[in-house]
Amino acid sequence: MNTLIVNGRHVKAREGAMLLEVIREAGVSLPTLCDHAALEPWGGCRLCLVDVTRNEWDGWAKMVVSCMFPAEDGLIVRTDSQRVVETRKVVLDLLLARCPDTPLVQKLARDHGIEQTSYQPNPEPTDCVLCGLCTRVCDHIGVSAIATVNRGAGREVAPPFHEAPPDCIGCLACAEICPTSCIPFTASDSKRTIWGKTFEMVRCTLCGRAFITKEQAAFYDGRNGVPASYFDTCDECKRKAQAKQFSRLSAGAGR
Ligand code: SF4
Ligand code: SF4
Ligand code: FES
User: The whole model's pTM is what?
Assistant: First the structure.
């Protein structure tokens, strides 16, 4: 266990933890947009900035993104130093210029005392905060169907050539993880459409519910030892079958 000081309080950190985790465990809240427990830290939104120093640094301190910085023994962390607060405000001010109509961004900005951006607002407002969660979750699944493209105000997430991405399996993970819900999709009992691509659904052989796209089933077939028959039934029916089997075994053991 490492010991650090966060805003004047001694806190313990497990080996391998990043600063953001320790700061949160210490009960200090930091705004974040690109952090997600299921994904490796990326350091893209810059909102989790903090000041770090050590006793032996003679008053010298540096700003780091806490989601990417290891919680080393002896670190002295400030989440509310003047330069950290000011820098976070600049990041939010710029974000508000990019996304002036996005409720999440408006709220974060307001929480930090910014009602209106001091920069030129984006003439084509977007809800995409460029957190990279969508592209990273797609990479994490092993598909990589979408990417961040263009520069400056026109930077956006898109499939190659803005056409229906051939590799997309229609899992909707990108849309579900998006903090501003700005990836449009439609889902019905028989079809799903996302990124301009429409998917047929596989139905559970027990309850008949459509629960996965055919492309998802094909993608996972044989991967990590998952047999094709795994996708015959939905998660809900699998759970029920397991519960039934468990109660049968328990009844047998009690005899
Ligand atoms: S829906 Fe397509 S683009 Fe989105 S995460 Fe799944 S595979 Fe990737
Ligand atoms: S589309 Fe959503 S998840 Fe993807 S980068 Fe933009 S805000 Fe983040
Ligand atoms: S949460 Fe650390 S940079 Fe986004």
Answer: 0.91
